[in-house]
């Protein structure tokens, strides 16, 4: 440790004074939080830090324009915010995820870092809060109670735009490409894990693409709730200590900063109290996760084997699959996908519990909601992107295996129902199962249909073709 690193500064708050290492940019309230909450080692997620700093930048610009703080102080806070947004000082946001209710500890961490860096920008010393104060200047007209629910909204929007939406677009395109590649491959359908009528392998992939496209739409619809802000409500939603023009102006500036339309809530108190927007988005994420689990399980089943399973498709091997069995490869990308999705479902349950745990003018469980929601978005997006690149794009089909299963399925007898009746068809299926004879052989032996008609009815290409629908 250098001599400079060993130096300390003295900071004071309402509870007394403490020594702060001179090299750090956080202050006394952050230090108390570090001491109080040595819980998980989990630190605030980057989109959440970005969201808080963007709010501080927007409020500093607004308060400077409205002459609530001096232009010099406003510009210094904005400059400090821009440095953080560029990636600097990220190691200074140190408060554990499990912390003081409502997020006051993290909020003050942000206020202190920006205040101290702004002081340096002005050529002053860290800790000279008479010139720039974390509460009086960086936090002018604000409260944890309106900043944190706004930060969850902004953080969620940033994470969706950066991570989940690109991943969904990528996987949908990859699945559509596979649908075209596999369109002429016929395989046996399966319901209840039993033989069913034939389908096209390409349509399986196209169905998955459609499912994920619909989830993307649902999530984007739910995310509209995040664009309505309670920022400006101050401590309890009344707007105490804010300029009359502050609320509209800060929403406008934030919209410009994140390039998304935002607007003040029609009732600031309602926007600050209710966690419903986060529950709504989390529910849409859980819904997506549930279908991603189903798709990942389908991939594993269709790739099962290689000798004793379906092995209708081959997932690309990406790593050895066993520490003892040579030559074994496992569907690890699909397995990982399910694990992540289970975590997202768990986060959703926690968000629902936390959302109903507010009292009167405040929900004190917001730090937990913030972490769980943004983390869900990030891990889902990263997972889908990895599954796309490391699995879906490299899938190949075992055409002969698919066709053999389709031709050997007893469910082909379903196509005979209109021609020989359900009971005769059932008898044919039973005899085929008992004797090992093919359906074609039995139908012809019993003279239930002519060979020509039977060939038309049991045409796998026609049987597996999708019927057109109006869109």
From TrEMBL:
Q: What class of enzyme is it?
A: lyase
Please indicate which superkingdom the organism of origin belongs to. Answer: Bacteria
| Residue span, Fumarase C C-terminal domain | 412-463
Keyword set includes Lyase:
yes
Reactions listed under catalytic activity:
L-aspartate = fumarate + NH4(+)
Q: Which residues form the Fumarate lyase N-terminal domain?
A: 16-346
Q: Which GO terms describe its biological process?
A: aspartate metabolic process; tricarboxylic acid cycle
| GO CC terms, sorted | cytosol
Q: What keywords does the record list, in alphabetical order?
A: Lyase
Molecular function GO labels? aspartate ammonia-lyase activity
Keyword match Disulfide bond: no
EC numbers: 4.3.1.1
NCBIfam families hit by this protein: PRK12273.1
| Protein name, entry field | aspartate ammonia-lyase
- Origin organism is Chroogloeocystis siderophila 5.2 s.c.1
């Amino acid at each position: 440790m250098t001599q400079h690193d060993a130096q300390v500064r003295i900071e004071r708050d309402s509870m007394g004074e403490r020594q702060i290492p001179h090299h750090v940019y956080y202050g006394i309230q952050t230090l108390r939080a570090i001491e109080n909450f040595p819980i998980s080692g989990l630190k605030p997620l980057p989109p959440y830090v970005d969201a808080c700093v963007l709010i501080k930048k927007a409020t500093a610009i607004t308060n400077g324009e409205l002459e609530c703080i001096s232009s010099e102080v406003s510009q210094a806070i904005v400059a400090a915010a821009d440095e953080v947004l560029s990636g600097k000082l990220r190691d200074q946001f140190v408060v554990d995820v499990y912390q003081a209710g409502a997020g006051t500890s993290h909020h003050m961490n942000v206020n202190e870092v920006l205040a101290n860096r702004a002081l340096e920008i002005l050529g002053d010393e860290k800790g000279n809060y008479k010139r720039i104060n974390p509460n009086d200047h960086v936090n002018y007209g604000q409260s944890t109670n309106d900043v944190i629910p706004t930060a969850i909204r902004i953080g969620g929007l940033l994470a969706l735009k950066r991570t989940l939406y690109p991943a969904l677009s990528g996987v949908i395109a990859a699945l559509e490409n596979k649908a075209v590649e596999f369109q002429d491959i016929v395989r046996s359908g399966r319901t209840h894990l039993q033989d069913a009528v034939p389908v096209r392998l390409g349509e399986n992939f196209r169905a998955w693409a459609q499912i994920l496209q619909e989830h993307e739409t649902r999530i984007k619809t739910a995310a509209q709730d995040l664009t309505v802000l309670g920022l400006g409500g101050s401590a309890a939603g009344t707007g105490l200590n804010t300029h009359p023009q502050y609320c509209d102006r800060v929403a406008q500036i934030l919209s410009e900063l994140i390039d998304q339309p935002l607007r003040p809530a029609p009732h600031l108190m309602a926007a600050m109290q209710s966690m419903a927007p986060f529950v709504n988005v989390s529910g849409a994420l859980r819904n997506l996760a549930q279908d991603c689990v189903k798709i990942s399980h389908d991939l594993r089943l269709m790739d099962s084997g290689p000798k004793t399973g379906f092995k209708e498709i081959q997932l690309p091997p990406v790593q050895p699959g066993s520490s003892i069995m040579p030559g074994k490869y496992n569907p690890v990308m699909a397995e990982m996908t399910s694990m992540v999705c289970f975590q997202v479902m768990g986060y959703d349950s926690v968000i629902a519990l936390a959302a109903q745990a507010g009292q009167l003018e405040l929900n004190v469980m917001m730090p937990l909601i913030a972490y769980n929601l943004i983390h869900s978005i990030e891990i889902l997006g990263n997972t889908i992107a990895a599954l796309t690149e490391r699995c879906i794009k490299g899938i190949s089909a075992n055409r002969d295996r698919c066709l053999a299963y389709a031709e050997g399925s007893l469910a082909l007898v379903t196509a005979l129902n209109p021609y020989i009746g359900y009971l005769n068809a059932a008898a044919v299926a039973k005899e085929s199962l008992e004797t090992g004879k093919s359906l074609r052989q039995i139908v012809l032996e019993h003279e239930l249909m002519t060979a020509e008609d039977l060939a038309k009815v049991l045409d796998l290409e026609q049987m597996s073709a999708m019927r057109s629908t109006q869109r």
